[in-house]
Amino acid sequence: MIALMNNKKLMILIVFVLCAGCFHEQTSTLSTATQSTKPDKQISGVSVIPGENIQVHDENVHKPNVPTKAITFVNELQGYGITSGKGKASLMQTGDGGTTWKPLRGIDALAAPSMLSFLDSQTGWLLRNESKDQESELSLTADGGQTWEVIAQDLPVLEAEKEIMFFRFFDRQNGLIAVRNGKDLVLLRTQDGGITWLASNRIPMPSEGVVTFLSSSEGWFVGSSSFPSPSEKNKAAVTLYRMTDGESWEEAGKISTSLAPKALSFVDAAHGFVLLQTNQQNRAQGQERQLLRTGDGGKTWSQHTFPAAFQPLDLNLQVSFVTTSSGWLWDARNLWKTKDGGLNWQLLTP
């Protein structure tokens, strides 16, 4: 009888130990899963998850006449740009993704600041801003830049002191020019291929920042917040805005960062890239640059840091992607290319 009672006690003890082990295993598994999916930063519904660091490859052979202004690509291979030197500027063309370039004879000197937009390898527009010596004008090519025809002059709002923040044709008829007018943005739209343009009302810009558009009415703006002192870096943030009606900006979230937006590119409504760098107030602490990437329309972003040795010029610093993997980054001196969505960059200039 006593032996039977002892056996029952032993069985109860074994069951208790096994249950305790199961409970501990489940708790550990849940804890690990929670830690692995927790984003690094989250403000107003936008999360930023740290990603792998960026690599920049500077090994290169001498390649003269590579453009560093008004660069535009229509696909992964075909692109156009403007190179300048000794007071002159020329239009250049590439057919291999920017590795080699050749000059086009259609326009051999560009006196005023200019921007390019190519719809395909044949159809493109060249916009010259107003200068003290000439009025603004828009030219069209239908043969890949070999010949050009002026189709519009003295465009509205394009006075010499105004900054053109964005210029693009979305199809053969519809194009958009975004012009900074003080603290406002004015959008010039065409529906006839650039012959006539209609200016919007002044649209307040939320702050200093960068802008891009996917159509004549849909765009993104990434604005700088007021940056606190270096000791309060954790309070700094950039703000994301979306435009869907062609008239106003709506806040889409904030990202906690002490860096300032410098360039912006969206491939489509889901996939976008933001280039951030140390704002001027905090540069005494060192210069830092990051690339943010989203694949879900700005809800979540991965954060990738450039190496400290990567120090491009601030002047004319831009980034542009034609697919989720192929993109280019350039300043007033150099041009880099990526084939993996911005994780590795290859220098294409001397």
Question: How would you sum up this structure, described in words?
Answer:
This protein is mainly β and 350 residues long. The chain has one domain (48-347): Neuraminidase (6 Propeller), CATH 2.120.10. It is built from 1 helix and 28 strands. The strands form 6 sheets. Strands 1-2-24-23-22-21 form a 6-stranded mixed β-sheet, with no helix packed on it. Strand 17 and strand 18 (219-224) form a beta hairpin. The longest helix is centred in the N-terminal third of the chain and has 36 residues, at 2-37.
Write the layout of secondary structure elements.
Layout: H1 2-37, E1 41-43, E2 46-50, E3 55-57, E4 69-73, E5 79-85, E6 88-94, E7 102-103, E8 114-118, E9 124-128, E10 137-141, E11 149-153, E12 163-169, E13 175-181, E14 184-190, E15 198-199, E16 203-204, E17 209-213, E18 219-224, E19 237-243, E20 250-256, E21 259-266, E22 272-278, E23 289-294, E24 300-305, E25 318-321, E26 327-330, E27 335-338, E28 344-347
Parallel strand pairs: 2-24, 3-28
Antiparallel strand pairs: 1-2, 4-5, 5-6, 6-7, 8-9, 9-10, 10-11, 12-13, 13-14, 14-15, 14-16, 17-18, 18-19, 19-20, 21-22, 22-23, 23-24, 25-26, 26-27, 27-28
Number of helices: 1
Order of helices and strands: HEEEEEEEEEEEEEEEEEEEEEEEEEEEE
Structure class: mainly beta
> How many strands, which pairing sense, and closed or not: the largest β-sheet?
6 strands, mixed
What fraction strand? 35-45%
**Side-by-side strand order of the widest sheet:** 1-2-24-23-22-21
Text of the CATH class: Mainly Beta
Number of strands: 28
The best one-word shape is: globular
Q: How many distinct domains?
A: 1
